[in-house]
Amino acid sequence: MAVSPQFYRNFLRAAAVLVVVLLFAGCASNATMQELNSQAVNFCKEGKYADAEKAAKSALKAAEKKYGKEHPAVATALNSLALVYKNEGKYADSELRYKQSLAILEQKLGKDHNFTAATLNNLAELYREQGKFDLAEPLYEQALAIFEKKLGADSLNAGTILKNQAALYKAQKKYAEAEPLLKRALAIDQKSHGEKHPDVAADLNSLGELCRAQHRYEEAERFLQQALAMREAELGGEHRLVAASLDNLALLRLAQGKNEMAEPLALRALAIDEKALGKNHPDLVGDIDDLAWIYKAESKYDEAEQLFKRGLDIDENARGKNHADTAMDLTYLSRLYLAQEKYAAAEPLAKRALAIREKLSGSTQQTIDESMNDLAEIYFFQNKYTEAEPLLKRVLAGRERAGSENPDVASALNNLAALYKADGRYADAEPLYKRALAIWEKSLGNDNPTIANLLMNLAALYRAQHKYNDASDCEKRANDIFHRP
Questions:
Q1: Dihedral of CA 140/145/149/154: which sign?
Q2: Sign of dihedral through CA atoms 347, 348, 354, 357?
């Protein structure tokens, strides 16, 4: 029933936003305002969010005092403040400031101005981070159309939008749509910068990550190794982008089950970032989590626990006890305890993560579903079926509202069916398994390993019902899939 953890966080998650925010700097002729806006951005990079918010608010106040509330300089300050709020997890406040900035720019500079396109991209990035993909996609498309018209289809700004769109599609598992966008962005960077530029390495890294997500491990390794070699040659062995490449290679090794090769890569990545950022920077938490998952895979539970606790402590201090990243840390630690059957330790962490996500205005239904699934799983393994069932039903109902044939619906059906089977409610379980099978066959094809696992679940149900012929048929089909080359 477990939801697969997201093993890593985006490296320098605000990078694409920072590029376009800085395009506005020329609007503010007042040196103090420019300095305050730059301070806000830099404080964000350093994880000093209280200082960043203070600087951004001061810049906004200064711009409004000098120019009034409808000047492009005010849009600059609003963009900076929106970025700060985004990094603090204050998504509603961030959205409001981006929309205010966009309204000013559309009125004063026009709907097809480059700065307008930049703000459309920023707002889309905010929506993407929240999982509001349907809101993000048309904004990316608008921004791309403007940049292509004003700067050309091969402009660097167009390339930035392509990369962000690709990240959107990757998050939705629309890999076929993401790949050509990344390859087009790579071609733009190669043409503009040459073959050895750090942006080219970043594009190769993104392609490697996309291949890893699709289990195309040989291609992933080729891209990731190429990116690492370029970064080490151009930036030196202690640069943070080198650390990012090392971490991604570690995740590839983990996905391949090569844990002994993953650990030294992750340790080196963490050491580089600790040297650059110090021991308590929130951008370290991604490295820390990845190393913890490797230790978990190696059954080094004590080492994994200490790392997850360290990440939680960093985020609570840097971002707050009710931040989305804190909820993620609680989730990871809870899952580690669940893997060790430490249910009493896992349950309060899962409950707290769910409470944070339900309270946060920017939480996505997906993250709330994950927390409900986690808590239901903890209840399930304690035979607390009465407590688990309403949580799983809520997850199923929410996913069905988004589309009854979505693969995520099949996952929810499978989980609820497993509960009914364990509770001896075989007649309730069987139609859920069959419906999940139909959805996954349609979306994944008939020979996907996920199909085989579900067939084995259905076979176990049939055996419990003494339907041995049906069980044998499911097992035969599952084994054919498992042993297919």
A1: positive
A2: negative
